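Appendix B, record 7
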Amino acid sequence: MNQVQSGLANLSATNSTNVTISTVDTAKAFSVCNFRTDIPQPQYVPICQLTSPTQLQISYQGACCTANVMV
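Structure tokens (predicted):
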């Protein structure tokens, strides 16, 4: 592993948040997300995915939590 990027993303009432990251090789990089919420329904679980070499998209339904992200 050459480099790890990490941070927090506050998930507001929109349906997705884009996080700008340093350039990564999307063929080799992966994202890890974790979060805490008091909402037990699975539809509120954020989904993190690399959408480009410089963008991580976090999709979710409603304002649920703060996500810890690593790429």
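Remarks on this record: The chain has one domain: 6-70. The chain is about 0% helix and 40% strand.
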